[in-house]
Specification:
mainly beta, Immunoglobulin-like, 3 domains, four-stranded mixed sheet, 23 strands, 52% strand
Length: 263
């Protein structure tokens, strides 16, 4: 009888692996670095596996001959790597784009960005550029024994520009305050879509507007706010006040006359 020994390397401590022989002999779960069968002379095919699917054996199978001596076979486990590839569309040449997640990568427009990963779930963030934004900023990707390709679409920013008077007015776009220049100018980069604009200033009437900007285009919102005028008197109120003044004057006249007469 001879020993047929399989020596494992590469698996993390605590991982289990298995050896099956063609004669029906099985190792069961092996947690150590080697396993031996006691066999007679002959040829034996074998297969190797592990419950840790992040790793794969090399070789995973083979044929061994036992002929009057013990045989030892080394088995090396290594991580199984798959590719997740990001491809972009929409960027002109000359612009680089970036992906961050399990590592980071960048490439010129038109070129893919690829990561080598083991099985698992990963989160990636796609960076916007100065003039272009991505329609999907985040990806959650699960690697499960296969390569994955994702497409990133970029669109040109739209712009909301204009000038507000008075220059110390306040502007909000979809509830977010917009910073104005000292002269009241604004230049805001936004994604294409619809926006609610509110312009206000102390002592002026508040202005409300709904605007729509299309991809790569600009919309101007130059506005001169109107001052809130002080309330005046209606004709009826003026007549009433005038009548009251005349009536008061008449009463005072009568009082003066009576006073003089009594003297």
């Amino acid at each position: 009888m001879y020993a047929l020994t399989f020596n494992e390397s590469g698996l993390p401590q605590g991982s289990t692996w298995y050896v099956n022989l063609s004669n029906g002999m099985k190792s069961g779960a092996v947690s150590g670095s080697y396993y031996s069968f006691t066999i007679t002379n002959g040829s034996y095919s074998y297969s190797i596996s592990t419950t840790d699917k992040i790793y794969e054996p090399n070789p995973s199978s083979g044929l061994l001959k036992v002929n009057g001596a013990s045989v030892s076979e080394p088995i090396t486990f290594s991580k199984v790597l798959y590719t997740v590839t990001f491809k972009e569309s929409g960027l002109p040449s000359g612009i680089s784009w970036y992906v961050k997640g399990a590592g980071s990568g960048n490439a010129p427009a038109g070129s893919p960005i690829t990561f080598l990963l083991t099985n698992g779930t990963y989160r990636f963030i796609i960076a916007n550029t100065t003039a272009y934004y991505t329609t999907t900023e985040q990806f959650s990707i699960t690697m499960n024994g296969r390569n994955i390709t994702e497409t990133v679409t970029y669109l040109h920013y739209s712009y909301i520009t204009g000038k507000i008077s008075p220059s110390d007015g306040k502007v909000t776009v979809n509830g977010h305050k917009v910073t104005l220049s000292p002269t009241g100018s604004l230049n805001l980069s936004v994604a294409a879509g619809s926006y609610n604009v509110i312009i206000s200033a102390k002592g002026y009437r508040t202005y409300y507007d709904n605007i729509t900007v299309t991809n790569g285009k600009s919309v101007n919102i130059t506005y001169d706010l109107k001052k809130i005028s002080k309330p005046g008197l209606s004709p009826i109120e003026s007549i009433a006040i005038a009548s009251g003044i005349i009536g008061s004057a008449a009463v005072i006249g009568v009082v003066v006359y009576v006073f003089k007469f009594r003297k």
